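Intended use. Records like the one below are meant for learning the mapping from a protein sequence to its folded structure. Do not use them to infer anything beyond what is encoded.
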Amino acid sequence: MKVNRIELRQIQLPLLSPFETSFGKTTTRRIVLLRADADGMTGWSEVTAGESPFYNYETPETAWHILRDFLIPWTLGKEWASPSDLVAVFRPVRGHNMAKAALENALWDIFAQQKKLPLAKLVGGILDEIPCGVSIGIKQSVPELLESVGRELAAGYQRIKVKVKPGWDVNVLDAIRAKFPGILLMADANSAYTLADTAHLKEFDRFNLMMVEQPLGWDDLLDHAKLQKEIATPVCLDESIHTADDARKAIEIGACKIINIKLGRVGGFTGAKAVHDVCRARHVPVWCGGMLESGIGRAHNIAMSALPGFTLPGDVSASKRYWSEDIIDPEVTVSAQGTIRVPQSVGLGYAPNLQRIEKLTVRKESIE
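Structure written out for the chain above:
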């Protein structure tokens, strides 16, 4: 394919309700969308960076800069046999995986259209339906949290993830287990603890959690390995895993038993497939993490979640959980059994709602 034009847009998309983690509260998403035109076809993707450099160092502003000034000029006007070929070209840029992923993933959308295949099938997906879980942020009170958990279970979701931090952890998990003793439950700490908290984290063992996600430093492997030896609860790594080599090292030193794969964090489908393959070869389950994506990012997550190693319910949930109106047609829906059908139509499987996107756009730049 030959890419002749790329457009960047920033949209402002208000959440239905605030989403709070150990490092802050989000009320409105500032999302950079990327549209690529090649050979008369159009591909869409989104930058999954948060508004502030708290999950990682990327933000909408850094991604816009890296895309506009480096990655897009390196992409335009050249013939690409596969979107995976971008990886070697982008290698001189250290990090900035979310910016890289946005450009690569848009080209995967176009490539799937050229091959007349669903995107999920093109990248190696085999599942027709994926299991879904939900991520519930920190609430104002435990009763409010319990009400939210009950509502999501009634909607059919197969797994509940709750955000935790010091002072909002053991008491919360205890209350959930008391009211919902048999549910699949996990805790996500977003690096809120240190190895000095090992004795406290051992208390999580009595709640029969599927996993505790990224309890220690965002860039750490070694201390997670020490922690995993001390606790029975499986450690899942998220922020620490940027490449397949990171995954290999983490598994080899015993830093985790599960890995969360986020398309943006690992640089796109090529990186995600590589991490997936490393984990599958070592019998380590993976699942799809979420970054409060719009429907465009969610559609890419669905395609990735169709890969065979994604055996645990991911953070891929219905559009209506987050938005009064999404930016795709149709919106993502979840069955009463807590599953999403993987689109079987050519390409992404969801059409961008151009009128809605235009209404939400606050910044736009086209590069040819």
